[in-house]
TrEMBL record, chains A, B:
UniProt xrefs under Pfam families: D-Glu_cyclase
SUPFAM superfamilies, A to Z: PSTPO5379-like
Name this polypeptide is given: Hydro-lyase
Mitochondrion as UniProt keyword: no
InterPro entries: D-Glu_cyclase, Putative_hydro-lyase, UPF0317
Superkingdom of origin: Bacteria
Annotated source species: Paraburkholderia sabiae
Length: 265, 265
């Protein structure tokens, strides 16, 4: 009931429900006409490297906004927000290892923290659905897609380097061209796919062995389509072993005030 | 003759001609199908602020690439380039004041220098011309437009804050809608205009008094159209009084290897 109410709510209303702990689960399907975002918080010392990394790799890291150091608000995409309380779940990484998952991070916040919010594909899942393009994994709540490391190297920046991570969605062959055309209009939600068809072309040698998420095999009339994935910066920050990074928990996104229609190019 | 040859050359060929001092004048009309760019070099200490400023103000500061500190190459947009020699002219600002204009900056280069290249409107001047949209100022070599400070405040970031600077082009009323539609497809070259018509709406109280460039009055069948201008970051860095900033000289741009067609959205 609350889910239904929040699915038609604004980004601001969803953030409020999360902040007041009325909503503590994934944000999948909430504030349906608003852009949702991945979160990455890094110490200021690494922020310039990380910002260059995002700028150089816009498909996996489509940057929506970067905070000022120590300021927990995102004044452009979500005025009045508090990044420490407005997501339903956070992951804390230290020295490249996941340490804990927590519902709030006020106790961890420091004045040298810089928050990055990056567009995520939840947004175009909504759009593909509206356009009548079916996706098997969306039939379940918390529907997860198959996520893989590839052999596509990101453009490095400072301490950050490593492979692009992609999400695979089986798409009906009759819909593939249209799905690509539609998503290409949303570069701030990863844009068009990076590959179509056999995953071995991009280093995915056994599709059943996912690195994250869950494998859904394509049915007979479907083909694999691979979009760049917002897990990339997390994977790369972990590989770099920087002393600290705080992110959203899987599916527990930051909901902005930006309308999906406003990021269409 | 050399101009004609270079007008059909690649970005790489133009950079070579400049580096070898075969070409020392403005880049207007050179490498016509390639993206030209504004340059801003700041000390690393200010680079994260400046990068956030660009990210927050994409109309005046459409970021094409940011270098690693101390690296004079732009590896993504211009592999093999050297930012210290590949522009025909540079301006050196110290503590907010223009100190000198120089043809090369090898002697000034330091390992804490970070280069930003930002899309410029020379690119869409080419495109508007190709589409048959006349612009009076392009009839002259080194054609300059009227450039003004406005009352539109940029989104601040760190030490950088101040008003947006715009360039005014008189456009035939019959062509205005099409000119807007075309330029809107090039967000990396300032995109669509920020204002159309009476400049007083954006704080330009006397159009004949330019802040930079030269005023061309609209003819009877023309109307003023204002696009965000790449002078903005220079004006703002000067106002902030940061100890050092090196830019291109007016019209002496950095020519990239990126095709204009590749930045169309």
């Amino acid at each position: 009931m609350l889910r239904e109410q929040l699915s038609n709510a604004t980004g601001k209303q969803v953030r409020k429900a999360i902040r007041e702990r009325e909503w503590t689960r994934t944000t999948h399907g909430l504030a349906r006409s608003y852009v949702q975002a991945n979160l990455a918080i890094v110490p200021e010392q690494y922020a310039f490297d990380f910002l260059r990394f995002c700028q150089r790799n816009p498909k996996p890291c489509p940057l929506l906004e970067v905070s000022d150091p120590g300021n927990p608000e995102m004044p452009i995409t979500a005025p009045g927000s508090d990044i420490r309380t407005d997501l339903p779940g956070y992951r804390v990484y230290r020295n490249g290892a996941l340490i804990e998952e927590v519902p709030r991070i006020e106790h961890l916040w420091r004045k040298d923290h810089v928050s990055f919010i990056l567009g995520c594909s939840l947004s175009f899942d909504e759009i593909l659905t509206d356009e009548g393009i079916a996706q098997q994994h969306l039939k379940e709540e918390n529907g997860r897609i198959a996520v893989y490391k590839t052999n596509i190297e990101c453009q490095p920046a400072g301490v950050f380097k490593g492979p692009m991570v992609v999400g695979m969605r089986p798409i009906a062959r009759k819909d593939v061209a249209r799905a690509i055309e539609i998503t290409s209009h949303y570069p701030l939600a990863h844009g068009g796919p990076v590959h179509v068809g056999d995953g071995r072309d991009i280093g995915i040698n056994d599709a059943t062995k996912v690195d994250w998420g869950r494998y859904t095999p394509p049915s007979e009339d479907e083909i694999e389509v691979y979009w760049a994935c917002g897990v990339t910066p997390q994977a790369i920050a972990m590989a770099s072993g920087i002393p600290e990074m705080i992110t959203h928990s899987a599916g527990h996104m930051f909901v902005t005030d930006i309308k999906l229609s406003a990021i269409r190019t």
